[in-house]
């Protein structure tokens, strides 16, 4: 069976074709970063318009790259939420309309399910059950994954998502959007321990996160210490260390609570090298293993949506629905 996956929930248009026997046949990604750069963040209307321009040409390219025609496609999966409603509607309308025209099933995929299954596209993939830490621009979730569709949310951010905190702090440091990877680069030159920011919500029980205070800690430090290049790098380092430490403490707690030995880390922030290193050490010390998607599948992409759609298709878990876009949708 072969599936076409369409991702348009935010600022990347991702299209992929996945075959349940052969794996990923092709994937295309168009990033709108340049479109939004002047505005310091994603402008929803511009995002929708760009998805309108790019989705169909990318579908044609993905089909050609996989040496497929529409007749080789058994179903169409599209991200139905959560995300920006206008952007979601583009993928949803195109996906549902193609499914209608081609007379194939359409599968509405949850964006975060796509992220948490993304490591399944790799050779070294985890077996069920596992613990998943999803750290993206819109969400921070700790999830117990028992099987496809069997997800228990153990904790989440009560304010900013991890990626959002990276982006907001990066903005304070004068870095362009998207600031997360730029802040990480800046932190490489930072001196460890010159500034120490809090590890929020680690001194009380539970698996929820709170990252908005770290941005405030950075703002106060900038106001007090100035913003010469070294100070900026030291603040970036203090911020990143605080986020990573906090995440590691919560992961350790969740592993203990659930008795799980496999940790999946996915979502845009999982591209962060220091986070990967620290969590790999944590898992090694716990006699377990950490699993990540390859870097290009950490951030939004069509491959993870095609994969998640295939699992839903095989399990018969999809609704023959009309166009569906759910900007807010619990996992
Ligand atoms: O998963 P994603 O592409 O989009 C959402 O679904 O939100 O995640 C994007 C987020 C952005 O906040 C971006 O700054 C962050 O992931 N990000 C990083 C890194 N690469 C991307 N944050 C920290 N370090 C990185 N290397
Ligand atoms: Zn995402």
From TrEMBL:
Name where it's found: Cytoplasm
Keyword Metal-binding in record: yes
Record-linked Gene3D superfamilies: 3.30.420.40
The entry's substrate-binding residues are 134-138, 167, 180, 272
EC number(s) of the enzyme?
2.3.1.234
- Catalytically driven reaction(s): L-threonylcarbamoyladenylate + adenosine(37) in tRNA = N(6)-L-threonylcarbamoyladenosine(37) in tRNA + AMP + H(+)
Q: Which residues form a coiled coil?
A: none
Function of the protein: Required for the formation of a threonylcarbamoyl group on adenosine at position 37 (t(6)A37) in tRNAs that read codons beginning with adenine. Is involved in the transfer of the threonylcarbamoyl moiety of threonylcarbamoyl-AMP (TC-AMP) to the N6 group of A37, together with TsaE and TsaB. TsaD likely plays a direct catalytic role in this reaction.
- Family affiliation: Belongs to the KAE1 / TsaD family.
What is the protein name for this chain?
Answer: tRNA N6-adenosine threonylcarbamoyltransferase
């Amino acid at each position: 069976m072969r599936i076409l996956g369409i991702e348009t929930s935010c600022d990347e248009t991702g299209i992929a074709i996945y075959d349940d026997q052969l794996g990923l046949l092709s994937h295309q990604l168009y990033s709108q970063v340049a479109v939004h750069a002047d505005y310091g963040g994603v402008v929803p209307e511009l995002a929708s318009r760009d998805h309108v321009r790019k989705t169909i040409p990318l579908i044609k390219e993905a089909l050609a790259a996989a040496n497929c025609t529409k007749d080789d496609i058994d179903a169409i999966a599209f991200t139905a939420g959560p995300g920006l409603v206008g952007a979601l509607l583009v993928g949803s309308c195109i996906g549902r309309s193609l499914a209608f025209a081609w007379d194939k099933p359409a599968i509405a995929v949850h964006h975060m399910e796509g992220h948490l299954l993304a490591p399944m596209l790799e050779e070294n993939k985890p077996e069920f059950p596992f613990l998943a830490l999803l750290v993206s621009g819109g969400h921070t979730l700790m999830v117990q994954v028992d099987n496809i569709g069997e997800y228990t949310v153990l904790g989440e951010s009560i304010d900013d998502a991890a990626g959002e905190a990276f982006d907001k702090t990066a903005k304070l440091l004068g870095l362009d959007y998207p600031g997360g990877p730029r802040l990480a680069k800046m932190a490489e030159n930072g001196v460890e321990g010159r500034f120490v920011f809090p590890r929020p919500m680690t001194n009380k029980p539970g698996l929820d996160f709170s990252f908005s205070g770290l941005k405030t800690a950075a703002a106060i430090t900038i106001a007090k210490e100035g913003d010469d290049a070294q100070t900026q790098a030291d603040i970036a380092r203090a911020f990143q260390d605080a986020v990573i430490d906090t995440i590691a403490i919560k992961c350790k707690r969740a592993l203990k609570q659930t008795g799980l030995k496999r940790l999946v880390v996915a979502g845009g922030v999982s591209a962060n090298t220091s986070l990967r290193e620290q969590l790999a050490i944590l898992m090694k010390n716990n006699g377990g293993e950490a699993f990540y998607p390859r870097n290009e599948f950490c951030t939004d992409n069509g491959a993870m949506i095609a994969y998640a759609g295939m699992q839903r298709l095989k399990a018969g878990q999809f609704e023959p629905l009309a166009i569906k876009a759910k900007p807010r949708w619990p996992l």
